[in-house]
């Protein structure tokens, strides 16, 4: 079919040369028409469609148009003309009706496109020409401009928005083949706008799904200033916020007119959050290319992993000479089919790409709407009937929204109530290694949900490992997340220290008092329970002393029993000696109860015997020293013996003193029955691995001191009497050993108190206290045994002749000795007062 090009009457032999003449405006015979319709093509027909294509790039320095855009401009324009050819030659679609076109250049600039699009509405603007006359006075013949029933385009969202605001005023339907801004889905503002590509809201949802499938939760966004970039990023941010689990590190914008060094600043800004390696980019081709150049210039190849929108798609121009930086980039593109070159191209010089599919689908959508409208309004009519002359725009819009046919890709072309096409995307990745032909590779699809072949993805250097783009890495076991305020994807990991365990992702809690955390601090486990073992170093020394003491005590008892009626044994006071030896034996024996495994019976005997052994020992010693003291004091005054000095009386006094201790212990039994406890506080150091629960009798330190306090009182009282009896003649030598015993015992127990209470903060407090107590008791018992009875046993065994010579002294002899001692003391004092040193013999003798 022959085409008439209104802006030039010159016919060229090749389409490429013709396009060059048309768009660049070099034809000498085009100047007249170019003045009225610059950068336009007119194709006559029964019904005229408008077309908007970015044949030229945006100009610089005040020039509206720049260089020719081959892929996004010439190829798409040619696709529309191809579609018109196909439709006009199809006997089933719009039979006997020829579609024409008025195609305009937008020069990739919204303001210029707005000026150009006024051409589409000229026929709808009523002009008053009554006052216009030719030079001869006749009324001019003004050619009425063609009426455009619908517009195919535009490409950029900002251009489509600008044009849509004008076309809706004149109710001219518009179908875009590339504009994806989400705001164009607003049916109240852009009710006459439709598109065969899905809006960026679908694209943004697909990109959110891709980011999540890669395990990323911290990304930056980069947008070209304008409707496409900004609305795309806004949609991505909104969807990611609603979905949760995805945070935006930075949202950067590329100015419309970037200054020198602007892209270097953008890369520097992106590096302020180096963990956000994923960069979501909604930008124009030129901006994408310069971003990659700036990253390469900064030696950051491989640092950023880009997820590009459909403006990047599978194009080669943005990554030309920047392949290393772009490696691993994941891009998205509306699902399309490759159109055979011979089916679309009027000139084999052009390499057609899949993007022309949407141009063809847009033209066919308009044609199907007109076809259905013609069948309803002009049934059986040949050509356009009166009801379609002119075509009513709002009615045509309803037919556009009702179309449903298989497009050039084999997929259904249809529109929802907002004029949007369904979301169907191919997911690409740019790969350089391990492929025969480096380039874009399809790795998945998105149709309301994502299907991504992760195993087919490759990253820098051919790595199959998905790079990280997270603000914070997962915390290890036993660590809780401390969230960064205002950034839900960022946190600091804090170890659950001490006796805490990780209760959940964000909280640590203390283990119960009888438990400690596991090694990974994810739960609590029972604290090991220990007791003082027989083989423990803390038990060996007390046991050794106790065994020696018991053997020595038994030896003394056996010796005394064997030589029970000998002078030495009788002079030592057999009755009280046996009582005293019994107490010493119990002091040694208590060591075994202190080390034995605690139980109710053991704890009961501990309470009873702990103070009883000392009480028996010091009660007998007190009775002895008191008897000696009273005898010598009474002997100084008269020859009448004091009361209660007989063996029976001495035993009664001793047992009365002992009964006080026994009664107190049984009262203690009644108030607090003996039982065992596990003490978890005693061995609870900062390191929970060293924590132990100690099985012991329920005897507090204060209770222990109270239990021993009566014995200590007896010991102090006995010491006082020992001091008072220090003047007894050497022939009555039992008082002096008792005195020395009490002095030594006091020193031992004075040392015991600070050692016992000084271990309060020790991790082995119970063991040290037990050892200190048993050793102190054993030492005091050993001193008593050694000073009072070991010498007697030695004499009995190794010097039996002295045992025969000893006789029990009568009270009369004791009185004489006491009287002599008293007079000698008085004489000495008198001589000192008179300055004399001579002692006269006592005549009373």
TrEMBL record:
The keyword Cell membrane applies. One of its GO terms (cellular component) is plasma membrane. The keyword Glycosyltransferase does not apply. Residues 538-812 form the G-protein coupled receptors family 3 profile domain. Residues 819-845 are annotated as: Disordered. Residues 1-31 form the signal peptide. Keywords: Cell membrane, Disulfide bond, G-protein coupled receptor, Glycoprotein, Membrane, Receptor, Signal, Transducer, Transmembrane, Transmembrane helix. It comes from the Eukaryota. SUPFAM superfamilies: Periplasmic binding protein-like I. This is Glutamate receptor, metabotropic 6a. The lineage of its organism: Eukaryota, Metazoa, Chordata, Craniata, Vertebrata.
């Amino acid at each position: 079919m022959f085409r008439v090009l209104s802006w030039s009457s010159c016919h060229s032999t090749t389409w490429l040369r013709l396009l060059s003449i048309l768009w660049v405006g070099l034809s000498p015979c085009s100047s007249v028409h170019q003045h009225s319709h610059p950068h336009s093509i007119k194709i006559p027909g029964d019904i005229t469609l408008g077309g908007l294509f970015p044949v030229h790039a945006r100009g610089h320095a005040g020039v509206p148009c720049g260089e020719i855009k081959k892929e996004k401009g010439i190829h798409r324009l040619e696709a529309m003309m191809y579609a018109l050819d196909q439709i006009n030659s199809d006997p089933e679609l719009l039979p006997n009706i020829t579609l024409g076109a008025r195609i305009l250049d937008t020069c990739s600039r919204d303001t210029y496109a707005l000026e150009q699009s006024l051409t589409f509405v000229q026929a709808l603007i009523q002009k008053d020409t009554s006052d216009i006359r030719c030079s001869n006075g006749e009324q001019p013949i003004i050619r009425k401009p063609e009426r455009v029933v619908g517009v195919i385009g535009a490409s950029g969202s900002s251009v489509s928005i600008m044009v849509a605001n004008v076309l809706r005023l004149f109710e001219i339907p518009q179908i875009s083949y590339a504009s994806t801004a989400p705001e164009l889905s607003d049916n109240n503002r852009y009710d006459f706008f439709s598109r065969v590509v899905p809006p960026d809201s679908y694209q943004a949802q697909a990109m959110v799904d891709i980011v999540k499938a890669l395990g990323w939760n911290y990304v930056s966004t980069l947008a070209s200033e304008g409707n496409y970039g900004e609305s795309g990023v806004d949609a991505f941010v909104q969807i990611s916020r609603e979905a949760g689990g995805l945070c935006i590190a930075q949202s950067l914008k590329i100015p419309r007119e970037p200054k020198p060094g602007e892209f270097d600043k953008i890369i520097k800004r992106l590096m302020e959050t180096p963990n956000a390696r994923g960069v979501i980019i909604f930008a124009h081709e030129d901006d994408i290319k310069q971003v990659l150049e700036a990253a390469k210039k900064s030696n950051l190849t491989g640092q950023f992993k880009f997820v590009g929108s459909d403006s990047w798609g599978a194009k080669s121009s943005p990554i030309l000479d920047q392949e290393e930086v772009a490696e691993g980039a994941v891009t998205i593109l509306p699902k399309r089919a490759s159109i055979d070159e011979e089916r679309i191209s009027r000139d084999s010089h052009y390499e057609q790409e899949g993007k022309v599919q949407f141009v063809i689908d847009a033209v066919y959508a308009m044609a199907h709407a007109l076809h259905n409208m013609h069948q309803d309004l002009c049934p059986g009519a040949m050509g356009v009937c009166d009801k379609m002359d002119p075509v009513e725009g709002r009615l045509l819009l309803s037919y556009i929204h009702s179309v449903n046919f298989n497009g050039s890709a084999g997929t259904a072309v249809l529109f929802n109530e907002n004029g949007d096409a369904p979301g169907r995307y191919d997911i690409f990745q740019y790969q350089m290694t391990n492929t025969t032909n480096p380039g874009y590779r399809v790795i998945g699809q998105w149709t309301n949900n994502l299907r991504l072949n992760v195993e087919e993805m490759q990253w820098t250097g051919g790595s199959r490992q998905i790079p990280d783009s997270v603000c914070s890495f997962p915390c290890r076991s036993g660590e809780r997340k401390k969230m960064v305020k205002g950034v839900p994807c960022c946190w600091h990991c804090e170890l659950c220290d001490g006796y805490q365990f990780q209760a959940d992702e964000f909280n640590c809690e203390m283990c119960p008092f009888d438990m400690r955390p596991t090694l990974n601090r994810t739960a609590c486990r029972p604290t090991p329970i220990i007791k003082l073992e027989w083989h423990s170093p803390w038990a060996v020394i007390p046991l050794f002393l106790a065994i020696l003491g018991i053997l020595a005590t038994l030896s003394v008892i056996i010796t005394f029993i064997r030589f029970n009626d000998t002078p030495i044994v009788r002079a030592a006071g057999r009755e009280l000696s046996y009582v005293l030896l019994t107490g010493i034996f119990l002091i040694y024996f208590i060591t075994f109860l202190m080390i034995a495994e605690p139980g109710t019976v053991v704890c009961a005997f501990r309470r009873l015997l702990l103070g009883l052994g000392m009480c028996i020992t010091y009660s007998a010693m007190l009775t002895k020293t008191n008897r000696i003291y009273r005898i010598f004091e009474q002997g100084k005054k008269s020859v009448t013996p004091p009361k209660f000095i007989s063996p029976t009386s001495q035993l009664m006094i001793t047992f009365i003193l002992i009964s006080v201790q026994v009664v107190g212990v049984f009262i203690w039994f009644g108030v607090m029955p003996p039982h065992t406890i596990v003490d978890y506080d005693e061995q609870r150091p900062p390191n929970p691995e060293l924590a132990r629960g100690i099985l012991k009798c329920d005897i507090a330190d204060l209770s222990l001191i109270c239990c021993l306090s009566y014995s200590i009182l007896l010991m102090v009282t006995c010491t006082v009497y020992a001091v008072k009896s220090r003047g007894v003649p050497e022939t009555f030598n039992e008082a002096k050993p008792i005195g020395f015993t009490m002095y030594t015992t006091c020193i031992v127990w004075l040392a015991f108190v600070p050692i016992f209470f000084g271990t309060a903060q020790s991790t082995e407090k119970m063991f040290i206290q037990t050892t200190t107590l048993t050793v102190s008791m054993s030492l005091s018992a050993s001193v008593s045994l050694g000073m009072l009875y070991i010498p007697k046993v030695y004499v009995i065994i190794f010097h039996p002749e002295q045992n025969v010579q000893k006789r029990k002294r009568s009270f009369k002899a004791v009185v004489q000795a006491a009287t002599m001692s008293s007079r000698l003391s008085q004489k000495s004092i008198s001589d000192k007062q008179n300055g004399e040193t001579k002692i006269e013999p006592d005549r009373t003798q």
